[in-house]
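Narrative of activities, Objective 1.

The group set out to show that a structural description can be obtained from nothing but a protein's sequence at a throughput compatible with the screening campaign. Below is one input-output pair from the validation batch, recorded exactly as produced.
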Amino acid sequence: MSKRLAKSVSPTPDHFFEKQLSGETPPSFSTLENLYELAGELCALRPWHVLDESELVLTRDPSTGEICYCSVIGALGEVLAMHAYIGSESYRLFRDIAAGEITHPGEFFAAL
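Output recorded for this entry:
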């Protein structure tokens, strides 16, 4: 008896998070595919083995010229993440979080 191939339930959508990003341009499949590949490359580099979460990597946003302040989390192996804070106000928010001045999600959103 020959095996039957499973049929695709639905075609790949053109865009994602349309409801959540109402009024904004939702990301395309190719954008998210690229992001997924970059995330895999970041995980392979394991920057949390080299950098402490209080240390920053700075880069410039090519579209706006603003400085991006990037930190990584994961030295303890529980949570792996990279955060990008765009602009000076975002950097101030990072400093407040690092100093323990913002400890609750409500405080975070109030600071925005």
